[in-house]
Amino acid sequence: MEACRTNDGETLLKAVGIRRVFGKGQTAVTALADIHLNVKTGTLVALKGRSGSGKTTLLNILSALDEPTGGQVFLQNREITALSPLERSRLRRKELGLIFQSFGLIPLMSAYENVEYGLRIAGAPSSGNREAAIEALEKVGMKDRMKHRPMELSGGEQQRVAIARAIAHKPTLLIADEPTAELDSRMGYQVMKVFRELVQKAGMTIVMTTHDPGIMELADYVVALEDGRIVTQNQLSAD
Ligand SMILES: Nc1ncnc2c1ncn2[C@@H]1O[C@H](COP(=O)(O)OP(=O)(O)O)[C@@H](O)[C@H]1O
Ligand SMILES: [Mg+2]
């Protein structure tokens, strides 16, 4: 199932009435109250909100890492909240690309080896992995530095390698939790430019979180969360 431009404008990801309560009884915390979200194919959606507003909890549910207390999530009309744990982990490996604040690269491996290793974890047949890894590194502008290890790269470059690892198996959806939080504004902007290019040229769909207003300007939609509820949804650019 490849992300393709012919699906433009169709709903790729849909959340219906998502609720997530941690704990029980008097100490229960309602992290998400009643979240409804529609993400169209080929768009970049940024979730914003103060620390503790529920952004990570929502991304974890959208990426099938966590299960909601109530509500449903659909990816391409398949209800992912109804899948077994095994099916969920297969979905994450094959169809999603995950990116985190802390990059998560393996220090002893070169940029290329990190991406190629990611492909093996995704269960890709080994033939063609080399080409797929190099193609992904090229897309994020890191092909000529692919022999470098993470410590020889800047934070922004490491995050671009992590993006290459997340897209090498051609996922349907990229999910990124605070991908620019550890970067200065120039490097954060470079990472966002890579995201924009992936959306515009490859038809990728991206859901990310951020606090940074400058970063949000590069999103197609900004969704604001407050105390586990969506308070506003804005369309920024109509490209
Ligand atoms: N595993 C957990 N157990 C208990 N409470 C949690 C857990 N994860 C998150 N929370 C609570 O849920 C709320 C939302 O957290 P989170 O989604 O991490 O917010 P954000 O990513 O916007 O900072 C917070 O009140 C947080 O303390
Ligand atoms: Mg968070």
Strand order of the largest sheet: 6-7-8-3-9-10
What is the element string, with H for helices and E for strands?
A: EEEHEEHEHHHEHEHEE
Number of strands: 10
Summing up helix and strand content along with how strands pair, one would put the structural category as alpha/beta
Tally of distinct domains? 1
Tell me the distance between the termini: 25 Å
Strand content: 25-35%
Based on the coordinates given, report the CATH architecture. 3-Layer(aba) Sandwich
Biggest pleated sheet: 6 strands, mixed
The set of bound ligands, ions and cofactors reads: adenosine-5'-diphosphate, magnesium ion
Provide a count of the helices. 7
| Average pLDDT | 92
Helix content: 25-40%
State the CATH topology. Rossmann fold
Q: Briefly, what CATH class?
A: Alpha Beta
**Rg estimate, integer Å:** 17 Å
Which outline best applies?
globular
Unreliable runs: 1-7
Tell me the name of the CATH homologous superfamily: P-loop containing nucleotide triphosphate hydrolases
